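Agenda item 2: adenosine-5'-diphosphate complex prediction
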Amino acid sequence: MYSCCEIDLLATLLEIAITMNDNWEYIEQQLSQALDTDIHFSSIQPVSGGCINQAWKVSTNDNQHWFVKSNQKALLNMFEAEFYGLLEIQKANAICVPTPIHVGVVAQHCYLIMEYINMTGLRQPCLAGEQLANMHQYQADQFGWFMDNTIGSTHQGNQQNSNWVEFWRHERLHYQLDLALHKGLDHQIYDNGFKLSEQLDVFFSDYQPKPALLHGDLWSGNIAYNENSQPVVFDPATYYGDHEADLAMTELFGSFGQYFYDCYHEHFPIDTGYSIRKTLYNLYHILNHYNLFGGGYMLQAKSMIAQLLSEVGYF
Ligand code: ADP
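Presented output:
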């Protein structure tokens, strides 16, 4: 859930909204080339809801629509990773995602064009649970992914590793802890976080996760239902990891509801140790929220680390 806008971020997005006006003709040309047909936008409407990027619904007179995101051109890698992440989820053929069409740079901006989805359907949490369980059955040989991506706008390393605990320690926990220290995280919390990272094996003594295809940023703002009431997930931070990491995030800011978890569990049984590991997985996102937004997330991270350390016999 990366929607807590800061003033600086809002100013940047406003600047993008204004300066993008000069770029639509170029984007129209690129889309025409990608689809091998002549496209002329008849309307360009801002879409709210995200905060990392500026977004628009672009339409033609004959009712074709696309969704376009834009940001400063230095963030091109972020859109490239989203492009390939959407394709990766499509490969699993388990749950709908918008089809990515083109990613590029124009003037000072990067942009990503994808299929526009009319997110007006009825909620079907049971179907979402079943389809996400199916997506998680799509697995790889190693944890990680072939490319790095971002979580919110923070770099997310995906260096492939056959050992999940090592992957989580280095690519997730250590990375966010180090970043947090630079952002002013209390030294004691940092040290305890490191202590925790050395004890991770305890959480996996009788549980060996498989490298499952993950959405990576699965909060309630990144799932919706299309016109046919089919679940759609979008804005992923894709990689292969423990399916519990995705499940944990569904519970971080509210919950997807009991129907969702019951149906999920029918198709991909949830191990009993999940109730403890979910705090470990959500600690990553809370540290990232501290790194992005500061404030009270430091205390939340502190209490999560203390809770996890008490599970392994400290405190
Ligand atoms: P950000 O990267 O800034 O977080 P999102 O990808 O979450 O932006 O998109 C912002 C909002 O736009 C979402 O909350 C959703 O309502 C809407 N949205 C996202 N993708 C699409 C799409 N492909 N078609 C239509 N609307 C979309």
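Discussion summary: The first helix runs from residue 7 to 19.
Owner for follow-up: CH.
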